[in-house]
Design goal:
Oligomer: single chain
Number of strands: 9
Number of domains: 2
CATH class of the largest domain: Alpha Beta
Shape: elongated
Strand content: 15-25%
Helix content: 25-40%
CATH architecture of the largest domain: 3-Layer(aba) Sandwich
Structural class: alpha/beta
Strand order of the largest sheet: 2-1-6-5-7
Radius of gyration: 21 Å
CATH topology of the largest domain: Alpha/beta knot
Distance between the termini: 28 Å
Bound molecules: adenine
Length: 226
């Protein structure tokens, strides 16, 4: 899978994909992430990519021209299955969307800044608008990194048995159960007996029960989703 990202702060996206599982995904050739500095498509020598908003009001808006030119140029090489705009007024990101996006070949992500991007770009080019939560970040880059990470780890071959996504929280609308490692007795605090007895069926039942209980307590809304 290839993910292209348009940003005015490419530096913010230098590190997140250079470590751990994302690094492995890239080294295995399963994931390619390319960042593109929008200023490359700036309309004048001042490298301008934003302007005052019509109708007045504080805050700049990212101009349509540099963005349209950037998208058109990147589209010459390939057809994007999705053009995603990261914005707090987008649809909330969740595991279901991560699963769906992990099955695409080519994705383009646009990171907003300031007051956001001109509405006409959203209407003309963008196929999906994503928010990573009900709070406002200073730009879409960190949100894009979250989405790329969530998608990247789902690509076939990225995770091994130890890190398998099958039992993650949310994969079946349940939170993950508690986990324990050695020692079995940590300063008098003992691991639940069922995990030490070696009966896989009982372990599975216990984990399911714990997941259900945790979800009821913390995220009852998940149990109402189909
Ligand atoms: N840009 C700024 N805040 C954001 C958010 N919560 N989600 C996605 N993109 C954003």
């Amino acid at each position: 899978m290839t993910i292209d990202i348009i940003t005015v702060v490419p530096e913010l996206l230098e590190s997140p994909f250079n470590h751990s599982i994302m690094k492995r995904a890239r080294e295995k050739g399963l994931l390619t992430v390319r960042t593109h500095n929008l200023r490359k498509w700036a309309i004048n020598k001042h490298m301008q990519v934003d302007d005052y908003q019509f109708g007045g009001g504080a805050g700049m808006v990212m101009m349509p021209e540099p963005l349209a030119n950037a998208i058109n140029e990147l589209q010459q090489d390939k057809k994007f299955d999705e053009i995603i705009y990261m914005t707090p007024d987008g649809v909330s990101f969740n595991q279901k969307t991560a699963n769906l996006l992990s099955m695409k070949e080519n994705i383009l992500i646009i990171c907003g800044h300031y007051k956001g991007i001109d509405e006409r770009i959203r209407q003309t080019y963008v196929t999906r608008e994503i928010s990573i939560g009900d709070y406002v970040l200073s730009g879409g880059e960190l949100a894009a990194a979250v989405v790329v990470d969530a998608i990247g780890r789902l690509l076939p071959g990225v995770l091994n048995d130890e890190t398998s996504a099958l039992f993650d929280s949310f994969q079946d609308n349940l939170l993950a159960p508690p986990v324990y490692t050695r020692p079995a007795d940590f300063r008098g605090d003992k691991v639940p007996e069922v995990l030490l007895q070696g009966d896989p069926k009982k372990v599975e039942e216990w984990r399911h029960e714990q997941s259900l209980q945790r979800t009821k307590e913390r995220r009852p809304d998940l149990l109402d989703e189909e």
